[in-house]
Specification:
Distance between the termini: 44 Å
Mean pLDDT: 89
Structural class: alpha+beta
CATH superfamily of the largest domain: FAD/NAD(P)-binding domain
Low-confidence stretches: 473-482, 533-552
Largest sheet: 8 strands, mixed
CATH class of the largest domain: Alpha Beta
CATH topology of the largest domain: FAD/NAD(P)-binding domain
Number of strands: 26
Shape: globular
Helix content: 25-40%
CATH architecture of the largest domain: 3-Layer(bba) Sandwich
Oligomer: single chain
Number of helices: 15
C-alpha cells in the first residue's frame, strides 16, 4: 500500500491488541495506520486461550472459522484441566478442576461460540491478514519516535528501522497498544496501580516427542514440581511441540543457554536423554497493574499498555482485544460525525473498571495455583468468581436516560445483550449476530410500531440505526411463544424494545411500548451518542458521573 502522511487513527504496536484495533477500525470504515517496531509478527507461541467473548468479536469480523481451523486450535480442541506432577513421566500430585473454571461449565446458553485454544503465532497472522483485507495500512519494522497531541490531532514521527528513513504522520487520534513497557504511557506520565510484580518467567518453545510420557492425558497446563525449579509444561499440539514456563530471578536471563534449556525440558519431562530442539526463548514479567487513566486527550491506551495481569484465567490478551472493540466503534462514530467527542470519554469510564476487576481475578487465581501441590490452603479463595462471570457479567455505567442504575438482570442497560438463538431464513442465528457496525433497536413480536418511529427518529438526528421487529416463526404457535425467551431474557414484554450499542451492550430498554416510541428512541440515541459533559474542579471536561456500576 502507498504510504500517506495523513490518517484518521494511528495505532502503535502490532501485537494481538494492535492488530485487532486495526481490524476493528477498518471494519468500521475508519482509515487506519499501524506501526510495529519489530520486523515480523511474533514467531513465539506465547498466549493461546481465546475466550468466548473474544470469539464473539472475531466471529463478527468473519474470523471465527479461520481461527478454529488453525493447527493449534484443532490439536487442543479437547484439552481441559490443570494438573501438577513430579515430572510428566512420573507421579501426578494434584489436579485443578474448580467451579470457577470455564472448562467445567457449559456456556452454550451464554454465547453462540466458545473457547478456542489458538496460539498467538497463528492468531496474529490472521488478524494481520483481515486488517489488510479491510484496508488498514500495516507497517512492520517501523518505530514511533514521538507523538505530540494538540486540540485537533496528533503529530507523530516514525522511522523505518530497516532504511533509517523518517516520516511525519498527522492523525486525528493515537491508540497506544505498545505493550507492558509502553513508551507512550511513560511519555504521557501516566502511572499505574495494582499488586505489582508477581514473578519473572522464561518461555522455552521446543520440539520433543512427549507422546509416551503424556499418554492419554490432554491438559491445558501441567505444573512440574520435581525439577528444583518452578516450571510448567504447555502443549502446542499434544505431540512434539511444547512450551516450558520457567520461573527465574531478574538478572539470570543469560543463564538460559540452549544447553540449559534442553536440560530443563528433560528434567520436566522425566526422560533423560530426550531429543530436544529449542525453537525460541522469550522472557516475560508476570504482574498485576492497571494504568491510572486510559485516555490523555487524543491518545488512548489499550491492551498491555493499559493493564497487565498474570496468565491464570487467560484474561490478559482477551481483555485487550475487548478494549479495542469498545474503542473502535466510538472512534468511528465520532469520526463520522454521528457522535459527540464526549463519547470517547466513556472508554476510560467503562474499560478501566473492567481492567481493575479482571486483574484482581487473575491475581487471585495466580495465588491459588500452589494449592494443587498442597502448598496452600485446601479450599480456594471465596473471592474468586466463576470464569463466566468475569468474562460476561461486568457492567458498564448506563448512559443518562438509559436507566436509573438500579436495574438488574440480563438485558439491563449497561450489560452485554443476552445471546438468544433465533431462526432466521431457516437457519439458526444468535441475536448477537445482529449487533455490528451501528446501534440496533430490537423490538418484541408485538412491537411493530417501533419500526417506523425509530427509523424516523434516527433519520432526524442523522445517525444510522438498524431496526429489527421479531416476528412469529412457522414452527411456533404464536408470536409470544415464538420469542418468549427473547422477551424474558431482555426483561421486556412482547411490545417492548431494547437499544443495543454496536459492541453488543444494552444502552436502553423500554419494558413496553410507550405513548411516543419515536421520542423515546431519539432520547436514548442522544444519551448514547452525545453524552453530556460537566467541568470538574480542575477545570477539565469529564464524563457526567455514571449512574451504574461495573460489577460482576
Amino acid at each position: 500500500m502507498v504510504a500517506e502522511n495523513r490518517t484518521s487513527v494511528l495505532v502503535a504496536g502490532g501485537g494481538m491488541v494492535g492488530l485487532s484495533m486495526a481490524a476493528f477500525l477498518s471494519w468500521h470504515g475508519v482509515r487506519c495506520l499501524l506501526v510495529e517496531r519489530q520486523p515480523a509478527l511474533t514467531p513465539h507461541p506465547r498466549a493461546r486461550g481465546v475466550n468466548p467473548r473474544t470469539m464473539e468479536l472475531l466471529r463478527a469480523l468473519g474470523l471465527e472459522e479461520r481461527v478454529r481451523d488453525t493447527a493449534s486450535s484443532k490439536a487442543l480442541a479437547r484439552n481441559a484441566g490443570v494438573i501438577a506432577v513430579e515430572t510428566l513421566a512420573g507421579r501426578q500430585v494434584g489436579e485443578l478442576r474448580q467451579y470457577f473454571m470455564d472448562h467445567v461449565t457449559d456456556l452454550g446458553e451464554l454465547s453462540p461460540t466458545g473457547w478456542c485454544m489458538c496460539y498467538q503465532d497463528e492468531l496474529e497472522p490472521l488478524l494481520y491478514e483481515r486488517a489488510s483485507e479491510l484496508g488498514a495500512e500495516l507497517l512492520l519494522d517501523t518505530e514511533l519516535l514521538s507523538a505530540e497531541a494538540d486540540d485537533t490531532g496528533v503529530t507523530a514521527v516514525l522511522r523505518d528501522r530497516g532504511r533509517g528513513a523518517g516520516r511525519t504522520v498527522r492523525a486525528d487520534y493515537l491508540v497506544a497498544a505498545d505493550g507492558a513497557g509502553s513508551e507512550t504511557r511513560a511519555r504521557l506520565g501516566i502511572g499505574t496501580h495494582g499488586p505489582g510484580s508477581l514473578g519473572h518467567f522464561m518461555n522455552v518453545a521446543f520440539e520433543a516427542d512427549l507422546t509416551e510420557p503424556l499418554g492419554s492425558r490432554r491438559f491445558i497446563m501441567c505444573y512440574v514440581t520435581g525439577t528444583g525449579t518452578r516450571c510448567a509444561l504447555l502443549p502446542v499440539n499434544n505431540r512434539d511441540r511444547w512450551m516450558l514456563h520457567v520461573m527465574y530471578r531478574p538478572g539470570e536471563e543469560a543463564s538460559f543457554t540452549e544447553r540449559r534449556c534442553v536440560e530443563l525440558v528433560r528434567a520436566a519431562a522425566g526422560v533423560p536423554g530426550l531429543d530436544v530442539r529449542v525453537e525460541s526463548v522469550l522472557p516475560w514479567h508476570s504482574a498485576g497493574l492497571v494504568a491510572d487513566r486510559f485516555q490523555d486527550g487524543r491518545v488512548f491506551l489499550a491492551g498491555d499498555a493499559a493493564h497487565v495481569m498474570p496468565p491464570t484465567g487467560a484474561f490478559g490478551s482477551n481483555t485487550g482485544v475487548q478494549d479495542a472493540h469498545n474503542l473502535a466503534w466510538k472512534l468511528a462514530a465520532v469520526l463520522r460525525g454521528e457522535a459527540s467527542p464526549s463519547l470517547l470519554a466513556t472508554y476510560d469510564a467503562e474499560r478501566r473498571p473492567v481492567a481493575d476487576l479482571t486483574v484482581a481475578q487473575a491475581v487471585l487465581r495466580h495465588a491459588d495455583r500452589p494449592r494443587m501441590a498442597g502448598q496452600a490452603p485446601a479450599a480456594p479463595d471465596p473471592a474468586i468468581l466463576p470464569d463466566e462471570q468475569v468474562i460476561f457479567d461486568y457492567r458498564y455505567p448506563a448512559p443518562a436516560g438509559g436507566g436509573d442504575g438500579r436495574e438488574a438482570g440480563p438485558g439491563a442497560p449497561g450489560t452485554r445483550a443476552p445471546h438468544v438463538p433465533l431462526v432466521v431464513g431457516g437457519a439458526e442465528r444468535s441475536t448477537l449476530d445482529l449487533y455490528a457496525r451501528r446501534p440496533v433497536l430490537v423490538a418484541g413480536p408485538e412491537g411493530e410500531a417501533w419500526r417506523g418511529a425509530a427509523a424516523r427518529a434516527a433519520a432526524g438526528m442523522g445517525v444510522p440505526l438498524d431496526v429489527h421487529v421479531l416476528a412469529a416463526t412457522p414452527d411456533a404457535p404464536g408470536p409470544y411463544d415464538a420469542h418468549k425467551s427473547w422477551c424474558e431474557r431482555h426483561g421486556v414484554t412482547p411490545s417492548g424494545a431494547v437499544l443495543v450499542r454496536p459492541d453488543g451492550f444494552v444502552a436502553w430498554r423500554a419494558a413496553a411500548e410507550p405513548a411516543d416510541p419515536g421520542a423515546a428512541v431519539g432520547d436514548a440515541l442522544a444519551a448514547l451518542l452525545r453524552p453530556g459533559l460537566t467541568e470538574d474542579a480542575a477545570g477539565g471536561p469529564r464524563l457526567r458521573p455514571p449512574t451504574g456500576s461495573v460489577t460482576p
